[in-house]
# Entry
Amino acid sequence: PVSLMLAETLDINGNRKFWGNIADKREDLAIEKQRKINETLVLKSMQPLVMITREGIVRMVSDSLCDLFGYTKDEVMGSNVKMLMPPSVRDKHDEYLANYK
# Structure
C-alpha cells in the first residue's frame, strides 16, 4: 500500500503548480501490526503487566493487573507507576528510573 498526496498551488506569477508525495506504507503497517500484537499480549496476559514510559507514566496495563490492585484501567493509565508500589519504595522510584536514562 502507498499513500499519495497531491496539491495545487500558485507561484508568485499566478501560474498553477502541482506537487505531490508518494510514500510506501508497508513499514508503517508492519509497525502498527506489531503494536497491536504487543497490546493484545499485555492486555490479555494472565500475569499482571504494565508498560511505562521512561518517566514512569503508565501507557498500557493488563486486565490482570487491574484485577490484582483493584483499579480500573482509567485510574491507572496516564498515572505514575509508583501508585502501584508500597510506600517503602514509592518515594524513591523516580530516582530509580532516572538512573536508567
Notes: Residues 26-43 form the longest helix (18 residues). The helical segments are 26-43, 63-69, 73-76, 87-90, 93-99. The two ends are 37 Å apart (CA to CA). The chain has a mean pLDDT of 88.
